Description:
The protein is an alpha/beta fold. It has helices at residues 12-15, 82-96, 136-140, 142-153, 185-189, 220-229, 244-251, 264-277, 291-300, 322-339, 357-371, and strands spanning 2-6, 20-22, 26-31, 45-49, 55-61, 66-73, 106-111, 120-125, 128-133, 157-161, 177-181, 195-198, 201-204, 234-238, 256-261, 284-288, 305-310, 340-350, 375-382, 400-406. It folds into three domains: 2-73, PUA domain (Archaeosine Trna-guanine Transglycosylase, Chain: A, domain 4), CATH 2.30.130.10; 82-189, Transcription Regulator spoIIAA, CATH 3.30.750.80; 216-406, Vaccinia Virus protein VP39 (Rossmann fold, 3-Layer(aba) Sandwich). The strands form four sheets. A seven-stranded mixed sheet has the order 16-15-14-17-18-20-19, with helices on both faces. Helix 10 (322-339) links the parallel strand 17 and strand 18. Helix 10 crosses helix 11 (357-371).
Amino acid sequence: MTTIQLKPRKEESILRFHPWVFSGAIARIVLDADHRAAEPEEGELVRVLSAQHQILGVGHWQVGSIAVRLLAFGVDALPERFWHERIAAAYTMRQRLGLLREDNSIYRLIHGEGDMLPGLVVDIYGATAVVQAHSVGMHVSRHDIAQAIVEVTGVDDVYYKSDDTLPFKAPVAGEKVGYLVESRKSKVESGEEYWAKENGLEVRIDWLRGQKTGFFIDQRENRALVERYAAGKDVLNMFCYTGGFSLYALRGGARMVHSVDVSQKAIDLVNANVSRNFPNCTNHKAVTADAFDYLSEQCAQGERFDLIILDPPAFAKHRDAIKNALRGYQRINAKAIEMIRPGGILFTFSCSQAVDKEAFRLAVFSAAAQTGRKVRILHQLHQPQDHPINIYHPEGEYLKGLVLYVE
Length: 407
């Protein structure tokens, strides 16, 4: 195993259990065999030492500013059953949180650094696990990970979907998409609809062609909050994707729900989900349209709503895009606040990790000030318990939301 030795005093964050080693902290790289300089292969396990030769841990080597993602601290090799033990610990936490129920078969099993497995995401949909690797190291270990998932959870299938998540220029060998464990593959690929439950609502999951792993699990608790506020209201769900917020609003007794997304495939899934849960539903309308254009047109026509949900895709995927992202958040929130009836409620979100809570809140404040309306914050929202934030890695907090009351 290659050894990474750090510069003096660069071990302090690791001793506080932060899982990243930055390239600028590295003094030298040696191979134990002959101590000559060596560059590890991307995805290789490496041992990390302090400048004083203290063993700090073991992790995956990668090219970039984050050079090592640590998997274990204070050891110079991973335990024999490492994957099984870490996945079992994550599974036990979900059990204790009450997420594994007859009426809820959708949950996130592994949330990267939050579950001390940096670079790995695993979502469970009933009898299927969908795995995404965000690092080459996790890609290299994908078969061991899949086997451990089956052993711990008892799922039938493990589907691997990392074509959009692996580092763009990384030298990746082997499949990026496909079944690692398959028992239902022929059924799903032949077009059979696959359904799973979230809090008693049935949702069609398409991990083959859908976004991310097939569903946005991170809004589960926030969708439930929409249900509490929806009774008797006209609801607008922007960037609706498969219509999660719309389903909860309908179950909550909304008078009318409008679901809007730019993707016709998403709208087809919304309609399928509504039909499945609310047969013969007459108070739901799905629209394929650009969000900004739709809001502008509806506002100009005098359309108004009692409850609006803004859950856009990440406006800023890196720090260079933050300014434009904040302008986008301000613009779309101002338009939504204009369209809310007096006494209405706005649920507004940002899933851009590069945009922090304070910046997002300032953008929404600016939007409210632009409209001149009186606005109060009712709730400050975040990601749910199966998307945990490692206390030693606060960067893992990415989902931000505000619930606003508009006079």
